[in-house]
Amino acid sequence: MINIHYRLISPQLISSDFVDEDFNKYDLVVKPTYLSICKADQRYYQGTREKEILQEKLPMSLIHEAIGTIVYSKNKNFQPNDNVVLIPNVTTNNTTSIKDNYLNTSKFHGSNCDGFMQSYIFCQSNNVIKIPQNTPSMVLLELLSVVFNAINSISKITSLNEKSIAIYGDGSLSYITALVLYKILPSSNLTVIGKHNSKLDYFTFIKNIYTLDQLPRNLSFDCAFECVGGLGSERAINQIIDYINPQGYINLLGVNEDKVLINTRKVVEKGITIIGNSRSDYNDFLDSINFIEQFPNSLNYLEKIISDKIEIFSITDINKAFEIDHNNNFKTIMEWKI
Amino acid sequence: MKYALIVAAGNGHRMGNTNLPKQFLLLGSKPIIIHTIEQFLLNPNIDKILIGVSADWKNYFQDILNNYCPQTNKIDIYIGGENRNETIINGCNFIKNKYVIQDNDIIITHDAVRPFITSRIIDDNIEAVLKYDAVNTIIPANDTIVEANNENLITNIPIRNKMFLGQTPQSFKIKKLLNLYHNLSTEEKNILTDACKIFTLNNEKVYCVSGELFNFKITTIYDLKIAKAIIEGNIES
Q1: Contact A2/B41, CB-based, under 8 Å?
Q2: Which among B164, B218, B168 has a CA at the least distance from the CA of B195?
Q3: What is the ipTM of this complex?
């Protein structure tokens, strides 16, 4: 079948590429219904990644956060009209002890293979998981899975129960991290630290909220999740290092194009553990779906960080969605009707 | 019920050194018609796909359908007519005989040799025909349209922004299409070049939805070259 991959061919220029897909190679065909724009997608779209990286990666379809409906299935576990979340990480035959999302032979949609901006997604049955409903907030399952990857990583070395935990950042990732920790660790002491009061106002379920320049002197915590990334990450990470308790744990989730200077002297003085976290695997997605089922009112919270929902009928609409997203505080969802 | 009707009964002019009708020529990994059928197969809003073929090529087509197309019970094959409109009317009669036609049943007719159709175009046709009874798919005319007589003299240059190119799908409420067709005289039926004209000759309105530039009809060697280049990634549209 002739499938259309909507590829970014150069910054801010998207084109229809026609790909002859072979039904025989795949278990499933999924029609995407909702796609969500990530900061990583924007770095490609706006052309802020390094020139060499853009030359290497483009042309490429963007987007790795998507849900859809099955339209064709060769697998008896999936039927047409089933709603599914699309798993962006694709790993074949992992015989190592390394998690799929860190394996350097894995493919990741929207990074080293076409993302989900396609007419149809041809995939295998282990690249999707059934979801209970096809609504815009469900597309945030991918971000939820990234949070669960980080929580699962740190839980292997220390328990988070009854710990004091700081979440740095005031964007979508920070919001979801705070929401998950609030729900699954009711006895933990959570603090959110960010820069913008207008965004911090959304964290209504957290009692302790501070801006970066107004931290209480006696603030301390055992564990921190850094969800800042970009230009602010250096200040955030070094502030965490200053305030964290000895032998504390720092989870880095933010992405920065430039190298970040951190106070390693204090890291070694305090015996701090720093863990890098990126992407997620099938099991993290399962944890996300279980989370939604266990705490159904969390969907109502997730709806609060959908800044815009834009219907997509053409490439012009895709460009409009990216431009609107560039100025949004939180998530922009594309309702995929192209 | 929502039926797709793929018009594939043409034998057409030879394209190059082959007797194969154009719709059976290979494009990429499979014949053109299979690419077209697959677009409708994957659209969840289509209940049945009818394919009108000529009697001479029915067995050939059944074989390539078995070889290339995913297994499905959605497809019916029937014998088309001498021309496009006859193939469509034969398809409607096929539906009448095999299934029961309800008032709101619709037919999305489409050329087999337009494999680049999208689900958006199909969905727009479905939405519009349920409301307006007859729909055509059009794109703006990028070139100026010129009317000329047999002596190569221009007789009219219509205003370009009121001119459009007609593509397919063309979609209809089945009962209304059959009634209006039977209202036409033999002379009117003979001059029909387009299914939508069945409506306009009866002073009925036809709504238009937007097609795509790349939803072109593969009729010449040049068209086939462009189609092959597009899917082999040499030209990006």
Answers
A1: no
A2: B168
A3: 0.87
